[in-house]
């Protein structure tokens, strides 16, 4: 028999790649049915691009002061200029540059904290739900203790102890964020650990690690993705809240919450100081929530018609 007569065998890599592309097309087909979700995705991509390219979009140093040009109005108002499109604050700092630069802080913290918190929550949730018993009790008591403290109040106390700083703010936001994905994963694992595919994996001698991360996790991952996406919006609000009250990022790093706080004393006369960073927070959080709802609708088969 000639070699050319043998049937062609596609490597497993290409088969997995084909399945991935099929699933991706199916996901996008479901996702784009929700126009609000698509709008949310566009908003999120817009702000992410602003954050990435902020060094090229800012017109001035965000901390550069010009007392002689303080309280300059936006360009479309009398006295405004294109040198400062959104006006200047009480120290003459360019509001456009500060808001653009602030997007990096809010989005970077939101995405980074959500990633590490979700990773930790997945591991803790898998271990808690799969093993149950004493392990589950210990992890869930830790979860209950963390949930007993009001998030913002405890975060303020921690920041007062640790001091202002981006890394300290990251730790403070992370300390409790893993709880939500942990509880979601645990609930899914409790329902999945007695399923037929898990029993089949045990029957062939698969290890606990293989069952948790290769069998159960792929089947609960869609729920985790939705929760993680929605938590990014919450983290952005928490960061803005802490920066607003003066216990967030350092003073030399502009953030949306800090910019709003700087302008709150002049809101009746110079409305643009707090309005524009507030709109940035509003649009970002709205976009993330719309995108998260779209992900839920597209990834949850129970919601499909």
Tell me briefly what this model is.
The chain has 305 residues and is mainly α. It has 12 helices and no strands.
How is the topology of this model organized?
Blueprint: H1 12-31, H2 35-52, H3 54-57, H4 95-131, H5 133-148, H6 151-162, H7 166-177, H8 179-192, H9 196-203, H10 208-244, H11 256-263, H12 272-299
Helix pairs in contact: 1-12, 2-4, 2-12, 4-5, 4-7, 4-8, 4-10, 6-7, 8-10, 9-10, 10-11, 10-12, 11-12
The CATH superfamily is: MetI-like
Report the CATH architecture: Orthogonal Bundle
For the termini, the CA-CA separation is: 51 Å
The chain-level mean pLDDT equals 84
Q: What percent of the residues sit in helical stretches (DSSP H or I)? A: over 70%
Element pattern in H and E: HHHHHHHHHHHH
**What structural class is derived from the secondary structure elements?**
mainly alpha
Q: What's the overall geometry?
A: elongated
DSSP strand count: 0
Low-confidence stretches: 12-16
In total, how many domains does the architecture comprise?
1
Strand content: under 5%
Rg measurement, Å: 24 Å
How many separate helices?
Answer: 12
CATH topology label: MetI-like fold
Largest sheet: number of strands, sense, barrel closure: none
Account of the protein in words:
The chain is elongated. With about 300 residues, the chain is mainly alpha-helical. It has one domain (about 40-305): MetI-like (MetI-like fold), CATH 1.10.3720.10. α2 (about 35-50) crosses α4 and α11 (about 255-265) runs antiparallel to α12 (about 270-300). It has helices at about 10-30, 35-50, 55, 95-130, 135-150, 150-160, 165-175, 180-190, 195-205, 210-245, 255-265, 270-300.
């Amino acid at each position: 028999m000639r070699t050319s007569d043998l049937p062609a065998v596609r490597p497993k890599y290409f088969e997995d790649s084909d399945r991935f592309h099929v699933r991706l097309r199916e996901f996008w087909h479901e996702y784009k049915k929700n126009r609000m979700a698509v709008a949310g995705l566009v908003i999120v991509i817009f702000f992410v691009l602003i954050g990435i390219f902020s060094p090229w979009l800012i017109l001035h140093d965000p901390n550069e002061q010009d007392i002689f040009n303080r309280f300059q109005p936006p360009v479309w108002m009398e006295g405004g200029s294109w040198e400062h499109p959104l006006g200047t604050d009480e120290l003459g700092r360019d509001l456009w540059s500060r808001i653009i630069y602030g997007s990096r802080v809010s989005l970077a913290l939101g995405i980074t904290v959500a990633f590490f918190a979700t990773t930790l929550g997945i591991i803790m949730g898998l271990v808690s739900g799969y093993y149950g018993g004493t392990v589950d009790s210990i992890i869930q008591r830790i979860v209950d203790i963390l949930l007993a403290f009001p998030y913002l109040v405890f975060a303020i106390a921690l920041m007062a102890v640790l001091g202002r700083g981006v890394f300290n703010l990251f730790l403070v936001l992370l300390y409790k964020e893993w709880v939500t994905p942990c509880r979601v994963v645990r609930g899914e694992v409790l329902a999945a650990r007695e399923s037929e595919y898990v029993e089949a994996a045990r029957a062939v001698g698969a290890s606990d690690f293989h069952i948790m991360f290769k069998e159960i996790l792929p089947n609960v991952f869609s729920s985790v993705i939705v929760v993680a996406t929605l938590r990014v919006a919450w983290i952005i609000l928490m960061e803005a809240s802490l920066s607003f009250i003066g216990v967030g990022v350092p003073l030399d790093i502009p953030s949306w919450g800090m910019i709003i706080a700087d302008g709150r004393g002049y809101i009746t006369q110079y409305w643009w100081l707090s309005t524009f960073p507030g709109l940035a927070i509003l649009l970002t959080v709205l976009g993330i929530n719309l995108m998260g709802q779209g992900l839920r609708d597209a990834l949850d088969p129970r919601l499909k018609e």
